[in-house]
Amino acid sequence: MRFYEFGNIDNPTVFLIHGTASHWKLSFGQVVDGLTDEYHVVCVAMDGHDENDTTEMVSISDETDKLEDYIQKEYNGKIYGIYGSSLGGSIVGKLLEKGNVCIKHAITGSTDFDYMSGLSAVICSKIATHIFYKYVKTGEIKGILNLLIKSEKSKKYLKDLHSGIYKKITYKTLYREYYTDLTMPIADNIIPEKTHIHCIFGMEEDGDKLVNRYKKHFPKAEIIGLVGLNHEELLFREPEEWIHMIKTLLNHGEYNYYGGTQKINGDLTYNSKSVS
What we know:
By secondary structure, the chain is α/β, with parallel strands linked by helices.
């Protein structure tokens, strides 16, 4: 695991963690400069996802431990914020569960928190790796992947998303990433005393499933659904708006996406839309 730091060390520190088969620069290269006027930014490069490090990934649990150790050693166990994109949010969730580091704001982006065990987990991980590895190498939406992605809008987005994929990832790392994330449980009812938790997702995703999982794991979290958007689409297609969202949340503000927002705070659900 490597760490790439930007901005003034005297500013509040915010960590950014990329997702499956991605890369710190491909995920966050467009947003780092927009954050460093207010924050010291640390981009995390997971094992097996960085051309400067030939280490293969062992497990998502191992990545969590490495990040936890780094925060404890370099930041005395306290950071201002952390953002986990997709699978990166699983690491955020595990850090919150363990409770060994203090985080003021923890944000997950489109994290599904899937969990499975036994033979089912092995089979699903092998199938997912086989399908996704072809997409990683070619960027093509063919075969089973084409059948799984129903709408043309989603297929187009997945093609565009290929620009954020780390093409040098190995089959071994990708499989371990899928399998160990799928089999790593996250506890229910995680309510850190001093942490504000924000769970972001696109309303074009399986919203009901995601909201139920967010409520299950983080019952006090602010859950924000972005109308008309897909998996991490705000980050990859609207980096300036993503920066605005992150800064708003880190400053204890109320974020409203201009296309519409569905929010859940505790048992209260409401819709909002920005008016220019």
